[in-house]
Write a structure and sequence with these properties.
Blueprint: E1 4-10, H1 14-25, E2 30-34, H2 60-73, E3 77-80, E4 83-87, E5 93-97, E6 100-109, E7 113-115, H3 135-138, E8 146-150, H4 154-163, E9 169-173, H5 183-190, E10 195-198, E11 201-207, E12 214-219, E13 225-229, E14 238-241, E15 245-247, E16 277-279, H6 291-312
Helix pairs in contact: 1-2, 1-6, 4-5
GO molecular function: thioredoxin-disulfide reductase (NADPH) activity
Family: Belongs to the class-II pyridine nucleotide-disulfide oxidoreductase family.
Protein name: Thioredoxin reductase
Length: 313
Amino acid sequence: MENNYDVIIIGAGPAGLASGLYASRAKLNTLILEKDKTGGQIVTTDEVANYPGSIEDATGPSLIARMANQAEEFGAIRKKDAVLDIDLEGKVKTVKCQNGEYTAKAVILATGANPRKIGCPGEIELTGKGVSYCATCDADFFTDFEVFVIGGGDSAVEEAMYLTKFARKVTIVHRRDELRAAKSIQEKAFANDKMEFLWDSTVEEIKGDGIVESIVFKNLKTGELSEYQAHEDDGTFGIFPFIGFTPTSHLFKDKVQMDEGGYIVTDDNMKTNVEGVFAAGDIRVKSLRQVITAAADGAIAAVQAEKYIDNMN
């Protein structure tokens, strides 16, 4: 049947595309399914400066286009289709989509994760134009500028301290009157003379004409609104929300092992607790979520899927 494959990869971000490249190069009949745009989060990044070798035309879209073309050149098939359900039991896995049903001997889950949004006006429109969800990716763009970090947990405070290496001032905006981060992390933050804190506050709106120009805060105790305007010599500033990630794993609930946050648990070979099912990229439990680690995961998952299929025959 034409809808039978060796490997089905769900998700066409860096992890999924790397999986597709390695699987198709291994002469596996490979299908990559993606319901939205190819590339995941990275296609919203204007400049990719920390992916090895991405020097010329190093934008998110251009990098993803090259990845997708490579996978297709080796024979991977890409289809735009929304996965509705998945049956991972047995030797033949079934993926039910909006436009059809597909089967495969192995499945690689690479649907990624998305940063939680503030949910205020202007946030979406100014993402990539002053609003960023990745300090490692974008800190350098804010060298000697002011930066606001939204959140109070471990990741928010750690990312804020990282940003102090670049920005002239970093203000943590937190809805409570104390941080939730570990005490050891807090101590380092309070000792950093580049850091300031705005307590009991939320972001109500982000404003700007093509670039972040101001941000509106609300004091949760008094209800008072205040607006910070970019310094006239700067013209802009950075906003980094770090209020957690949401893994795109709801379709796989109760089908593979996950942690409390909904991230898929794998071993170092990207194997889940289900035979023939692998996970790669931001969707799995890991310490660093970057293009380079997603691509590495994808390569490992594909190689392990090839070994699994070889052992089946």
